[in-house]
Design goal:
The chain has eight helices and ten strands. The protein is an alpha+beta fold. The strands form three sheets. Strands 1-2-3-4 form a four-stranded antiparallel sheet, with helices on one face. A four-stranded antiparallel sheet has the order 5-10-9-8, sandwiched between helices. Strands 6-7 form a two-stranded antiparallel ribbon. The longest helix is centred in the middle third of the chain and has 24 residues, at 64-87.
Length: 216
């Protein structure tokens, strides 16, 4: 029964063509459960694999909310790999592979946040303030009704940036002391509820480290 349930939630993948020199490169991002849960972005040149970025997941996607969050993560990873490919000078294959290798096996931001001691719940939003999953939005409104009513005022602590894709300034903001933080990674935002179990814990530093661990 558990195996059937996990098979039910398969995040949608992404495929793009990136013009690089005379031949376009194909970039594919996919989720797979076996032999272990992972998200893989593959770069191909004329059907031949150039490089793979593989990020292992702690567990398979087991719910609609997790599926929605994973699809957001996959889109962000896909866009980031495309940016790296486009920014790399033509002919510099070693530099390209070095930059791509830095992304391999780094766990998703939401998993890194959840692993911080004292973190209770991580709510994922896009830069426009839309929650990833209806259940997550309802849970946040019940737990933080006052903040939910003034959601965009809180999010505007990090102003929206101009561009083709919605983005915000990056940063971390303590909304309610020892209870709720708001963090922006640019393309994705998070409300992070906490409960202090260690008086010496520095939530702001831990969240910052988890948020920007893989960024250059």
């Amino acid at each position: 029964m558990e195996k059937m349930a996990s098979n039910q939630y398969i995040p949608a993948g992404c495929t793009s063509l990136v013009k690089k020199g005379s031949a376009p490169l194909q970039v594919q991002t996919e989720y797979a459960m076996r032999p272990y849960p992972r998200v893989t972005t593959t770069i191909l040149n004329a059907g031949q694999v150039v490089f793979k970025v593989v990020k292992k997941l702690e567990q398979p996607v087991m719910s609609v909310d997790e599926q929605s969050r994973m699809e957001t993560f996959m889109k962000n990873q896909h866009a980031e790999i495309i940016r790296i490919v486009r920014d790399q000078p033509e002919g510099s294959s070693f530099g390209l592979k070095s930059k791509l290798a830095a992304h391999t096996n780094a766990p998703p931001i939401v998993d890194r946040l959840r692993s911080i001691p004292g973190i209770q719940y991580v709510y994922v939003l896009n830069p426009n303030g839309d929650f990833s999953g209806r259940h997550s939005a309802q849970h946040f409104r019940r737990a933080f009704s006052r903040i939910a009513r003034n959601l965009h005022e809180v999010m505007d602590v990090f102003r929206p940036l101009e561009g083709t894709e919605p983005r915000r300034e990056q940063g971390i903001y303590e909304v309610e002391r020892d209870r709720l933080y708001f963090a922006s990674a640019g393309k994705e935002c998070y409300f992070i509820s906490v409960r202090r179990t260690d008086q010496a814990a520095n939530f702001e530093k831990a969240i910052k480290d988890a948020l920007f661990m893989t960024q250059a």
